[in-house]
Structures are given as structure tokens and as C-alpha cells.
Write a structure and sequence with these properties.
The chain is an alpha+beta fold. It contains four helices and six strands; from the N terminus they run ββααααββββ. Strands 1, 2, 3, 4, 5 and 6 form a six-stranded antiparallel beta sheet that branches. A hairpin with a 5-residue loop joins β5 and β6. The longest helix is centred in the middle third of the chain and has 12 residues. The chain is elongated.
Length: about 160
């Protein structure tokens, strides 16, 4: 059986469908650039001397950096078919350290059609895992997904 490569439309997603992303290794550059972008210079993220004396025994990535990178790993599944991000709920379960490799296991949890937008709302559960296959974060998100590419003359016309 052949599987169509992403992106997927509303109709191509099925409840119970599971997909795994490629991996991404968290680097010093990720953490430093995120701190600069957000202004979050918490010493847990940027000060190795401070962080070594904490329960983490070293620097950890920002939780929101982990969320952002996981979203990027998930994004190819819906690139061009997403109309809107509607809701995000995240639980951070374990620290992510520089040098860890994360990947995302995605499950389609629910889907509800929307005639107004020629697509519907899909609820996804993303389990962010590290190289040891430990779940470091769980993200539940709802997206408005088109039946085709989310272009003005195809989808958003009423």
C-alpha cells in the first residue's frame, strides 16, 4: 500500500491515524537564539554554572522552545492546508537538554467538518519524545484544515 506524502487535507486525515516526524537535535544555537528572540534569559537556559547546581544538573531548553520546535516538526503534515490554529494545550513532562534529539509522534484524535470553510477542525495529540523514547511533552492542538490547499479562491470563499 502506498502512502501519500504530506501535506494532508481534512479528508485525508482519519481519527486514529498516527504519524512520526523526523528528529531534530537541540543545539546551543537554538537555545541562545530563542533567548534572544523572546528575552527569556532565565539562568536555567543560559548560565551553565548556575544550571549545574539545580535539579537538572545543567542547562535545559526553554519549554516554549520545545513546543515551537515540535510544532515545526509537525508542520509539514499540514503545510498549505492549515487555515487556522485554534487551540493549543501543552504539558511539559521532562527537561530537554542541549544535545537531546526530539521527534514528534502525532495522532489524529478527533475531526469535525465545517461547511463554512470547506474543511473542518481536527484535534491532534503530539507526543514529543527524546532519543531515549521518553515523552518530554504532550501537545493537544486544534487546527482548522482545508479540504484542499488553503488558498483564497478555493477555501475561504463563502
Amino acid at each position: 500500500m502506498s502512502i501519500k506524502p504530506p501535506p494532508y487535507t481534512y479528508d485525508e486525515f482519519q481519527v486514529g491515524m498516527r504519524l512520526r516526524s523526523q528528529g531534530l537535535t537541540i543545539t546551543e544555537a537554538h537555545v541562545v537564539q530563542f533567548a534572544g528572540l523572546t528575552g527569556d534569559y532565565n539562568p536555567l537556559h543560559v548560565d551553565e554554572v548556575f544550571a549545574k547546581n539545580t535539579i537538572f544538573e545543567g542547562r535545559i531548553a526553554h519549554g516554549l522552545l520545545t513546543l515551537s520546535l515540535a510544532t515545526g516538526l509537525f508542520a509539514p503534515l499540514v503545510a498549505g492546508t492549515t487555515i487556522a490554529l485554534l487551540e493549543v494545550n501543552v504539558k511539559f513532562l521532562k527537561p530537554v537538554k542541549i544535545g537531546d534529539t526530539i521527534y514528534v509522534d502525532t495522532e489524529v484524535v478527533d475531526k469535525k467538518p465545517s461547511n463554512k470553510y470547506n474543511g473542518g477542525v481536527i484535534t491532534f495529540r503530539l507526543e514529543v519524545k527524546n532519543q531515549r523514547d521518553e515523552v518530554v511533552a504532550v501537545i493537544d492542538q486544534k487546527l482548522l484544515i482545508a479540504r484542499g490547499l488553503a488558498v483564497k479562491n478555493n477555501v475561504l470563499r463563502q
